[in-house]
Write a structure and sequence with these properties.
Elements (H helix, E strand, L loop, with lengths): L1 H51 L9 H35 L4 H4 L3 H4 L2 H21 L7 H90 L1
């Protein structure tokens, strides 16, 4: 009788525990299914946002945009430096004016130009020739008139080349200005793109954190459900 009473008590206790375990398992199963649905919805919302905003990478592509902005900024610094270098020469030329080739010839960049150097050499050669002829002939002699014509042509060619070099400097200055403005516009556009990407990244982080939180909660309930099932 004593053993029977003990067995009945143990069985009753086990049945009570089993009933509680089955109830817990049933509730966890229902809750787990709900959490699974929430997680699936959160993941779908995250993926839809990625596709709608054309997001590439983990952080919305902001790293790529940052590298692009840095690259453009460095190019803009170089372009500004080039423009300032050309601008100094351009201002000097503007102050002299194109009507004065002899003074423009004294500008170091113009003077050192290979074609200008060659034409100056040609002019010097003809002037030396005239100096030698002047020792033998008068100013109205045909050979003197001929060499004077050569000097005039050489000087005209030199002046033309000087103006060509000056025009090239002016063109380089305008190109440098245009390049700087273009890079500035690109940099401004990149900055605007960065701001938009920052907004996207903020929203992306929100959605990712929501998915992670639901994932952790789902895994916690799943672990508890497995433990409860094993206990049952």
């Amino acid at each position: 009788i004593a053993n029977t009473v003990g067995d009945a008590y143990i069985e009753s206790n086990l049945e009570a525990k089993l009933e509680l375990t089955l109830k817990a398992t049933s509730w966890l199963s229902t809750r787990l299914e709900s959490l699974r649905v929430d997680l699936t919805v959160a993941e779908r919302v995250l993926q839809d946002y990625r596709e709608s905003e054309q997001i590439v990478g983990e952080n919305g592509g902001i790293n790529i945009a940052s590298q692009e902005m840095e690259l453009v900024a460095n190019k803009l610094v170089d372009a500004r430096r080039d423009r300032l270098e050309v601008e100094s020469l351009y201002r000097q030329i503007q102050s002299i004016g194109k009507s004065n080739p002899e003074r423009l010839e004294l500008v170091p960049t113009v003077l050192q130009h290979p074609l200008v150097q060659r034409m100056k050499g040609e002019l010097a050669r003809v002037e030396l020739k005239r100096s030698e002829l002047a020792k033998r002939y008068g100013p109205k002699h045909p050979r003197m008139q001929s060499v004077n014509s050569e000097i005039s042509n050489a000087r005209e060619a030199l002046n033309s080349q000087i103006l060509s070099v000056v025009n090239g400097i002016e063109t380089n200055y305008r190109v440098a200005q245009a390049n700087e403005r273009s890079l500035q516009r690109t940099l401004d556009g990149t900055k605007g793109n960065m701001q938009e990407l920052n907004r996207k990244e903020y929203r992306l982080n929100e959605l990712q954190q929501n998915v992670q939180a639901k994932q952790v909660l789902f895994e916690t309930f799943l672990t508890r459900f497995n433990e409860t099932s094993a206990t049952g």
